Amino acid sequence: xxxxxxxxxxxxxxxxxxxxxxxxxxxxxxxxxxxxxxxxxxxxxxxxxxxxxxxxxxxxxxxxxxxxxxxxxxxxxxxxxxxxxxxxxx
Length: 90
Known about the structure:
Its main location: membrane. This protein is mainly alpha-helical. The protein has one domain. Helix content is about 85%, strand content about 0%. It is built from four helices and no strands. Helix 2 runs antiparallel to helix 3. The N and C termini lie far apart (about 45 Å). The model has no long low-confidence stretch (mean pLDDT about 90).
């Protein structure tokens, strides 16, 4: 796949997935509370960039040891378990 297509595809998926999620709501709340939207944006951006970096390189490293289809099933199961935990945690 062309690198620019990868970039745009990842941007679109992550952008849509992050709209209205807990991170965005936390950023909104912190911005209102601190009245420093630029620093809240900067801190959130750095945190999300670091988490994304770790995820991207960890995913690449894991595929050296775990077949891709197995890794996708494991990640899918983790998503399901987190969803179930989120429903019943209260």
